[in-house]
């Protein structure tokens, strides 16, 4: 499961980067593009960090960062859609993936937190 999620988060980051190429070239979209690239790649990088966490509290702290970053990715995708910067059909799969990843990581955090008590 760990290796599958490493791969899945990396693919998510790659796909978020690729989709930004569809954004129009403006100052606003450049900002949104960079924010989406930053947080989506952070999902993958920080998930890898959870895989080598030294303790349960460390895992919980690191997975919490992953949750925040994937939720932020979802925010920027929704924002781009709300501002008509991209067509829904081009990012629908990323919105779905960010929601699924959020649910997976929240469940992981809950399990780790429960088992930590």
TrEMBL record:
Cross-referenced InterPro entries: 23S_rRNA-intervening_sequence, 23S_rRNA_IVS_sf
The UniProt entry, under Gene3D superfamilies, shows: 23S rRNA-intervening sequence (1.20.1440.60)
Top-rank lineage group of the source organism? Bacteria
- Known Pfam families for this protein? 23S_rRNA_IVP (PF05635)
Name by which UniProt lists this protein: Four helix bundle protein
Q: Which organism is it from?
A: Flavivirga spongiicola
């Amino acid at each position: 499961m760990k290796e599958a999620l490493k791969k899945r988060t990396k693919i998510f980051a790659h796909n978020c980067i690729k989709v930004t190429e569809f954004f129009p070239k403006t100052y606003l979209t450049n900002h949104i593009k960079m924010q989406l690239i930053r947080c989506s790649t952070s999902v993958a990088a920080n998930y890898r960090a959870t895989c080598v966490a030294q303790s349960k509290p460390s895992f919980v702290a690191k997975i919490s960062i992953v949750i925040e970053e994937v939720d932020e990715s979802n925010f920027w995708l929704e924002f781009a859609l709300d501002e008509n910067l991209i067509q829904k059909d081009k990012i629908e799969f990323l919105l779905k993936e960010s929601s699924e990843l959020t649910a997976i990581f929240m469940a992981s955090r809950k399990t780790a937190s429960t088992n930590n008590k």
